[in-house]
Structures are given as C-alpha cells and as structure tokens.
Write a structure and sequence with these properties.
The complex is a heterotrimer of chains A (484), B (477) and C (95).
Chain A (H helix, E strand, L loop, with lengths): L10 H9 L5 H19 L28 E4 L26 H8 L8 E2 L33 H8 L5 E6 L5 H7 L2 E4 L19 E6 L2 H11 L29 E5 L9 H16 L3 E5 L7 H16 L19 H12 L2 H14 L4 H25 L2 E5 L15 H5 L6 H5 L4 E8 L5 E8 L4 H13 L11
Chain B lengths: L2 E12 L36 E2 H13 L3 E2 L2 E2 L2 E4 L9 E4 L6 E8 L7 E12 L3 E4 L3 E5 L6 E7 L6 H18 L11 E11 L9 E6 L2 H20 L8 E5 L4 E4 L12 E2 L6 E2 L2 H9 L5 H12 L3 H8 L2 H13 L6 H18 L10 H12 L5 H14 L3 H8 L7 H14 L1 H8 L4 H13 L6 H13 L1
Helix pairs in contact in B: 2-3, 5-6, 5-7, 7-9, 9-10, 12-14, 12-15, 13-14, 14-15
Chain C lengths: L4 H10 L6 H18 L23 E2 L9 H5 L5 E2 L2 E5 L4
Antiparallel strand pairs in C: 2-3
The chains are: A alpha/beta (484), B alpha+beta (477), C alpha+beta (95).
Chain lengths: 484, 477, 95
C-alpha cells in the first residue's frame, strides 16, 4: 500500500503494521500530515493549525507500549499541558493549561503522540452542529455544505476524513454520538464515572464524559481501554477495574435481548432514518438477537430536564471565565472590577453560550429554583427508573442516534429550540449515566450517514462492544469513505 | 427607653490541616504570594475538588464538642457569587444539609450566672483568596484560597458586647483544646462577623439588624458592638428607623461605617455540588471521634476547683491554654501536700511573669514540673527566701539547671540556724543602738530597719521571718 | 411562569453579562420560548420523588491530608492578563 494512504487505515491495522515493522510511526505521522494539508481547507476539523505545523513523534520507540507513537486528536476542551486549550471560545483565547487532563496523561503513558492537534467544537460544547465555534464551522466530509454534528464535530469529521486516526470527544447530551452518526464513524459515551473528568473543561458536571471517536468498533475498544479507569483526582470517577474491552469484540449476538423503545420511533423522525434503522434491527434479528418493543414513558420530558440541569450546572461552571486569571479581559479603559466582569463576559461569550448561561442562572434563581431546577432533578429520577426497569429484562436498548441525518450549515441557527430538539435520542443516556455507542448503519439517498445507537447498563460497555462489533462485522458501512 | 441588644455571631475558623480542603496545596501561613496554589484552588478550567478527610474529621470533632447533632448524611452545595478573591466565582459550602446543627456554648461572666448561647449550625466550606487594594488596582493572592473553613453560627442569644467577647474567648479556648485551629485573628485564622439589633426591654419581637464586618480582634468585636448599640439606640430614641445594612468597623475612627449599599439582596443560587460525592457519617465514626475529644476547658476548670481546691479565678487563668493546664496539673501532682495554693501562686505569679517576659506560654518554659516543685519545696521548708527563689527560677529557666544546683552554686541557702541568727541579731542591735532604742520606745518600723541590716550582712540569706522573731525577742529583753 | 425582559435583565446582572439592548430583546424572546418548553415538566406529579443530584450512588470520596507539590508561581501566573511580581492584577474593587 502506498505510504500516503496509511492515514486511511484504522489504528489497529496500523499497530499491526508497526508490530511487523512494515512501517514506522514517523511514516504514519507524515502521511497524516499530508492528508491534513490536502483536506483541511475544506473540512476545517482542526483549530489554530499553523500552516507549517509540526507533527513530531515525541516518544522513543524503545518501550513497547499500546499506541507506539500513533497520534490522537483531541477536542479543544480537554486540557493539554502547554498547548492551547480554548473550548473554541473567544473568552478562553490564548489559554495554555499548566497541566494535562488525566486522559491525556494516560494516553501519553500508553505511547500516544499528543501534538497541537485540537479539534473544532461548539463553544464550550454548547451545540449540536459545531456552528457555534469561535473559529467558524467544521464541514461534514460527506457533504461539505452540511454540519458534522456537534459539539465534537471537529473530532468526528477528522476521523471520517482520515485526517485523524483516533480522536477524543466529550459528550454531555450526545456530543460524541450525534456527530459520529452525522459523519459515519463510531462514537462512544462511557458510563458516567468510567473515564476521569479531571482536565475536561466542564459543561455540565453531572452529565459530561470524555469518549473515543474512531473509524471502527475495535479502535473504540482500544482507545476506551486506554483512557478509562479510576482517578483519585476526580471524586466522581468510579473505582472499578477496567476490563480488556478487546475481549468483548465477539461476533455473536445470539440470545442477546434488545429493547426498542416505542417513544423513539414517533413523528419527528426522518422517514429515511427510520427505515434504515429498522433495517439494522432486522439484521440483528437475523444474527440471532431477540428484539422486542419496550417503553421509556418519560422520554418526552427528557429534553426539558436536560436543558434545565445542564444549563444550571453550566451557568455555574462558566462563572470562572471573568478575565481575572486567564483568557480574554476586556480592554475598556477606566473600568472598575464589576464593569470588567460584565464587559469581558459580554465580549468573550458567543450567543449560544450567553443563552445557556442566562437560562441556567434563571432556573437556579430565587423564586424559580423549585419550579424548574428541583423539579427537573425529580423527573431525572423518573427517567433513570424507566431505564432501570427495562434493563431488568433486556441486555441493551437500540435507537436511532439522531432523528435526522446531517442538516445544512445555517439551517437551524435561527431557532435554538429546534436545535435543542435534535438531541432528543442522545440526552437520556447522560441523564441516566448510561454507556452508549453510535455506529454507522446506512446512508440516505443523498449519501448521508445514518447512525445506530446502542445503550447498556452502567459499566456494561462490553455489551455495547459485542453488539456493535457483531453488527459492524456483518455489514460494510465502516469501510466506506467520503469522496474528498 | 431601655433597649436589649440582640446579637448573633458568625465565626469562621481555619482548620489546621496540612493540606487544603480540596487539593494537596500547603496551608502554611506567610508564604510568598501564589506559591501554594494549583489548578484546583486556582479554579482553573477542568480542575476538580476532592475532600480532605482530616478536614471532615476536625469539623465533626468541633461539632461534637459544641454539643451539636452531627447529621448522618451531609452534602456540599455551590454558593454562587462573583468576587475576584473567589477563583471559580462560586464557593463550595454547605446549605440545606450542613454537617451539624443545634449545639450550644455556655459562657461564664465574672459574678454572673452562666448563660447558654445556642449554636444554630457548624458546617464546612472553603476559604477565598486575599486581595490587596491599591489606588487604581487590586492585587490577588490565592494562597489562602481553598483552605478549609469551619463556619460556626450562633443564634441571636447574646445580649451584650461583654457576652460576645466571652463567647469568642470560650470558643477559641475549646478550639485550641481540640487542636484543630490556631484561632489567630491577626493571621486571619479566626474571623468574626456580627448581626445586631435592639429591641425594647421585655419585648420578644426582633428589631432591624445590621451586619458588622471587619472586626480584626476580640477587642474590636467588643468595641464595634458597643458602638453599634449606642448608634442604634440614638436612632431609635430620636424616632428614626435602623436600616438593614452591612457596616464595617473602622478601627482608626472607632466607629462603624455603612458600606455603599449593595443593590439587590444576594441571590446565591445554591445547588448541590455535583463534583463532590455525598457523605454519610456513621454512628461508629462519631463515637470514634468523640473518644478523641480531650477534657474541655470548662470541665477541667471545675475539676481543678474540686480536686485541687483552686479558686474559680485561679483555675480560669490556668485552663485557658490546654498545654498550660496539663503542665499545671503535673505540678499539682508533683507537690505532695493536699493544699496546692503554694503551687498555684508560683504558676500564676513568677512563672506566668517569666513566660510573659519571654513572649511564650507557661508550658513552653524550659522547666519540668518536678524541677519546679523542688524549688517550691525549698521555699516551703524556708530553706531559701522567696526573693532568692525568684532569682533561682530565672537561673533555672536560662540554664536548665536544677534548683539545688543553682542554690548550691549561688550559695543561697537561708540561714535558719537559731544560733547563727542569734549572733546576727546581737551584732546588729549592738551596731545600731539608736535604732534599737527607737524600737524600745515604740517605733515599730525600727525593727524592719534592723531586719534589713541583718539581711545585708548575710547577703540576703538570713531567714527574714525567723530573724525578725529573734530580733523582737532580743529587743524586748 | 413567563420570563420577560425584566427577568432577563436581572438574570444577566446576576451572571455578570452586560447585554446590549438589541441582544436583550432577542434573547428575551428566545428564552421565553425555551422556558415555555421547560414548563412541560409541570404536567408530571413529582410528589414523593427524590431528586437526583448525583447519578452515581457514591459516598465518602475522600483524600488523605497529605501535602503535594504546588504549581510553580510562574505557571500559576502564566496566563494572567495582567500581573505584577507574584500577584494577579485586577481593576480596583469598589465596595
């Protein structure tokens, strides 16, 4: 295979070639750099890329370690020591964290190269299209006029366009899975507490998780295995051993019980998406799985709950962006401290960020706390109970990842509420703390990818991998590439 | 019109853990600015808190010592407000499920019955950084940010500045006994805010209160409260209303000044802290911590009175500091006679004096209880004079020698030998016939002159009491 | 419960964001719609339901009271918009 095409391979394929000394990591990096130069002007998956950027292999090859010098592209909200981490926001312009997020430390220890390859995102992860980035939108490699999804749109697009071999994203309400679905790649949100949040710039503390975005299920298992695990620096990380996820890549779903929630197949879903997902369900049935309808009766309340809880926590998490210690500070002359706060935050935050901060502040404020925030926390309990009940009798739950395929850039930016409703299938996994994966299951007539979502019980990522792997190995979707 | 002051105190104390509440930075006082910080206590994006186990244990200890009910289940909440010394623009604190509540502190004022001040709650939170204000800018130092704070809130049961002072002194004493805080207002490890209102004597309704801040010593608290009582009294007497506001104590002008009015009432938007786990405190844990609580000041005072016959005043001086109290008790035990007054006098007199001169505590003096008692016994046996003994003490403290060593070296043993004293008396009477004559004619003071002369002759070593008796006897002949 | 321009102004003040008047108009309208959507939760009876503030049933996550190495002061101040010596410099705080 010509060395230039190395970037089209998956990480596990490249690792095999590295093992067999058929290729060196420098050659891989060089191929990747070449590809980035080729397609980046169209896709715009990365931010702050210097035209003459260097992709150096910073590890020696003496130690045999998992990633053997493969680079991992990192979403711009994960802290990398000494490398700008700005959440694609003006207010964090120039911020260089003096420390590595725990996942970054783990990746480095596993031999990955962490270069200044930060992927584009909706500012502070507020969005479902990557249109809210201070650096402008990323373009979907399958159709450059469409969004890649969000908020981890840059990571998903980079992987789909072979501009990245492996990528990390973050998921608060679907921000890994929905862009994975729009871009035809694999995206996994781990169980809440499976992966450390230390170093992830927080959006909603009780919902956020970092997860892998990859070309196939095996790469996802590899990457998750490297970043998962207890972290004493994160009070919400769980001290449960990390299994070898590659062992759950079994091509067999005989007897696996899959639930199809009827509330996810009602009006609002694009008819092509519905048809494609139903075909995928048939496939799994043929492969031996038992599929039955189930009910998650509080599904219709999930979006209001999500937008109350997530914005409330976000409004508090983003209070620290005030120009005192880092980031943008308003240059208005003669301003006192109060004015500095107000000007800095007015200038530094984009529209969606302001909207969410105001919403979150409102639902926590005096007189509204009980009616909104407290009530939302109670309904969250009801939603979790719905899932607990279903998982008593089922191994996993299957849904479309998103109600539509990728929409056009600019199509939903005028209507925030409409944008929020494109998350409805993904938010429940965050509200209930469940692991969930999205993988490609087909294409619309227009050639746009459609994603299949699988949810499992807490800490049952192995179940996700098994079902996803089986489906993937019995289809060809993961081998298809956009024409760039 | 007679008014009754109604005062509630809110005290914040630094817990003297080695590391901060939510990160491993040092809590030591006096470091160069921003050298004891990390992403967590700086509130850098992506950082997360993890609670210090010892901070929680100390908090439970204090709650138990103050008679509070410790909650089985407690959690932290975010208190959201913007201020440059607060890096995250929210403080991790406790709101509706605090660590403990419903305790009390009994205060004892001289000549008055004891009074119980109820304590509403004791909870844990983190401290903010420090700001230094200049002309056009302020400087921020975050070394203090994240240090664990205990907030102790009293009910408005305090009715005078004197009582408030006593409450603070008693609280400080207890906290020192528990060894959980340095309680040093100058170093900022104890801070106090007060709420005060006046009501007509006999009425049960509460008046409008003002909140007092910026009182940097116990004295300032007392002065500020007294000032505020007068200020509010004058307003009410002249038919004006007291405005609910925050007032700062100005220690130079000796008055409280209104802070420029803060716009709206503070809306802290409390919600449960999602980055920390919740905490369940078992009965076993509570029992374990309770066992570790030493005898507290009040208990010790009462026991000193009962076991060693001390007066309330003497006991109160000796129990202020736990280490001093322990030292004192060791001295009592080393002194055989049941009546300990002699020892008490030494402790409260010469020893305390030496300690004050050296700027240290009683128990920090370089003297063992047994060594002190050896000295005390010399005096009690009249083998040295009290005056000599005081200089012996100083020598002992400076050189770590024993009493007998110093007495031997300086040849300070009193001459109590009757014959020697007789000789001395005779000699002195012979040498001062005029003075002797004065005494015989009835001038009492002449005797003391003769005693003085004899003391001079003996380089201060004659036993003055015995000498006086012998002189008297000889003069009367 | 309607959220109107006054609410939004008050909320913006609480959040320390100085909204321009055009922004205020637009946001008030959008927020009104979104909050209306959130009002859907009123349909449910939540009597006796415990709120979920922590999705994981975790208790007593603590750390030992051990001192760790702090950040070197240069790193702490590395991103400061304005600094002087070891301090962060900010505009005068007016009480």
């Amino acid at each position: 295979m010509p060395k230039e095409s190395l970037n089209r391979l998956t990480a596990h394929e490249l690792l095999q070639r590295l093992d067999n000394k058929q290729v060196t990591s420098d050659e891989i990096l060089s191929a990747l750099k070449q590809r980035i130069k080729e397609v980046e002007p169209d896709v715009r998956a990365y931010v702050r890329l210097d035209k003459s950027f260097e992709l150096k292999n910073s590890r020696t090859q003496e130690l045999k370690c998992l990633f053997q010098g493969l680079p991992v592209s990192i979403k711009d909200n994960i802290c990398t020591d000494g490398l700008n981490t700005e959440c694609c926001s003006k207010i964090l312009g120039g911020f260089k964290p003096p420390y590595d997020a725990t996942v970054i430390k783990k990746l480095k220890e596993a031999g990955a190269v962490i270069a200044d390859l930060k992927t584009n995102m909706d500012e502070f992860a507020f969005g479902s299209s990557t249109e809210n980035s201070f650096f402008g939108p990323t373009h979907n490699p399958w159709d450059l006029e469409r969004v890649p999804g969000g908020s981890s749109g840059g990571s998903a697009a980079a992987v789909a366009a072979d501009e990245a071999i492996l990528a990390l994203g973050s998921d608060t309400g679907g921000s890994i899975r929905q862009p994975a679905s729009f871009c035809g790649v694999v995206g996994l949100k781990p169980t809440y507490g499976r992966v450390s949040r230390f170093g992830l710039i927080a959006f909603a503390s009780s919902l956020d998780q970092i997860g892998p975005i990859t070309k196939d299920v095996k790469d996802s298992a590899l990457l998750l295995g490297a970043i998962a695990g207890y972290d004493p620096n994160d009070s919400t990380s769980v001290d449960t051993p990390v299994p070898d996820y590659t062992r759950s890549l079994i091509n067999d779903v005989k007897g696996i019980k899959i639930g199809l929630p009827k509330e996810y197949f009602v009006e609002g879903i694009d008819p092509q998406v519905k048809a494609i997902v139903e075909e995928a369900v048939e496939k799994l049935k043929k492969l031996g799985a038992f599929v039955e309808p189930v009910s998650l009766r509080h599904t219709q309340y999930a979006a209001p709950v999500y937008y109350i809880v997530a914005t409330a926590e976000a409004s508090s998490n983003l209070a620290r962006f005030d120009g005192v210690q880092y980031g943008h500070r308003s240059a208005t002359p003669g301003q006192g401290m109060l004015q500095m706060y107000q000007n800095t935050r007015e200038e530094g935050f984009g529209e969606e960020a302001k909207r969410r901060i105001l919403l979150g502040t409102f639902v926590l404020s005096h007189g509204y706390y009980e009616a909104y925030y407290l009530r939302a926390l109670k309904v969250r309990t009801l939603i979790k109970q719905d899932f607990d009940a279903v998982f008593e009798g089922f191994d996993c739950i299957l849904t479309p990842t998103a109600p539509t395929p990728a929409f056009k850039i600019g199509e939903k930016t005028d209507n925030p509420l409409k944008m929020y409703l494109s998350d409805i299938y993904t938010i429940c996994a965050n509200l209930a703390g469940l692991p969930a994966i999205s993988l490609p299951c087909g294409f619309t007539k227009e050639g746009l990818p459609v994603g299949l979502q699988i949810l499992a019980k807490p800490f049952a990522e192995e179940m996700l991998f098994r079902v996803a792997y089986t489906y993937e190995q019995n289809t060809q979707w993961h081998k298809m590439k956009p024409k760039l | 019109m007679l008014y009754e002051p109604v005062i509630g105190l809110e005290v914040h104390v630094h817990l003297k853990t080695k590391s901060k509440a939510f990160c491993g930075c040092s809590t030591e006082f006096g470091a160069q600015p921003n050298t004891q910080t990390c992403p967590v206590c700086l509130g850098f994006p992506g950082s997360l808190p993890v609670l210090n186990k010892t901070a929680l244990d100390y908090a439970i200890k204090v709650a138990l010592a103050l008679g509070c009910r410790v909650q089985e289940y407690t959690k932290f909440d975010r208190k959201n407000y913007f201020y440059p010394d607060l890096p995250k623009n929210y403080q991790i604190s406790q709101y509706d499920l605090p660590l403990s509540c419903d305790g009390f502190l009994d205060i004892h004022l001289q000549g008055a019955a004891s009074k119980r001040i109820r304590i509403r709650r004791v909870h844990l939170e983190e401290d903010a950084g420090k700001l230094i204000h200049r002309q056009d800018t302020s400087l921020a130092d975050f070394n203090r940010s994240g240090i664990p704070l205990l907030e102790i809130v009293s009910e408005p049961d305090i009715n005078s500045a004197g009582q408030a002072h006593e409450y603070l002194a008693e609280l400080k004493s207890i906290l020192e006994y528990l060894d959980v805080s340095d309680c040093d207002m100058e170093k900022g490890s104890l801070r106090c805010d007060a709420n005060i209102s006046l009501r007509k004597q006999g009425s049960l309704e509460l008046g409008v209160k003002s909140e007092l801040k910026n009182m940097n010593s116990f004295k300032a608290v007392r002065d500020a409260l007294n000032f505020e009582i007068e200020r509010q009294k004058e307003l009410l007497d002249s038919g004006q209303a007291v405005i609910q506001e925050t007032r700062l104590w100005d220690a130079k002008q000796l008055k409280t000044l209104s802070m420029r009015s803060k716009e709206e009432a503070k809306d802290y938007r409390y919600f449960p802290e999602p980055d920390l786990s919740t905490f369940s405190i078992s009965a076993d844990k509570i029992a374990g911590i309770r066992k570790g609580i030493p005898e507290l000041p009040r208990e010790k005072l009462l026991r000193f009175i009962k076991e060693y016959g001390l007066s309330e005043y003497d006991a109160s001086v000796l129990v202020i500091s736990r280490r001093d109290a322990i030292f004192s008790e060791q001295c009592f035990k080393a002194y055989a006679p049941k009546e300990k007054k002699a020892v008490v006098n030494w402790l409260i007199g010469p020893l305390l004096s030496e300690a004050n001169n050296r700027g240290i505590g009683l128990s920090d003096l370089k003297i063992e209880p047994a060594a002190l008692i050896e000295l005390v016994n010399f005096v009690e046996r009249q083998e040295i004079s009290l005056l000599s003994a005081k200089t012996v003490l100083t020598q002992m403290l400076d050189s770590v020698k024993s009493a007998s060593e110093v007495i031997k070296e300086k040849n300070l043993l009193q001459i109590s030998d009757t014959r020697a004293l007789e000789d001395m008396a005779e000699q002195v009477i012979k040498e001062n016939p005029a003075v002797a004559g004065d005494y015989k004619s009835g001038k009492e003071s002449a005797l003391m002159f003769l005693v003085g002369e004899a003391m001079k002759k003996s380089q201060g070593r004659a036993n003055p009491k015995a000498l006086k008796e012998i002189l008297e006897k000889n003069l009367k002949k | 419960m309607a959220i109107d321009k006054n609410n939004v102004e008050y909320t913006a003040r609480l959040a320390r964001i100085e909204l321009q008047s055009k922004e205020l108009e637009k946001l008030a309208k959008q927020l009104q719609e979104i909050v209306g959507f959130m009002d859907k939760l009123k349909e449910l009876d939540v009597e006796g339901i415990n709120p979920t503030s922590h999705i994981l049933p975790m208790h007593n996550v603590l750390r030992e009271d051990i001192q760790k190495v702090s950040l070197p002061v240069e790193k702490a101040l590395m991103n400061a918009p304005q600094k002087e010596g070891n301090f962060f410099v900010i505009p005068k705080v007016i009480e």
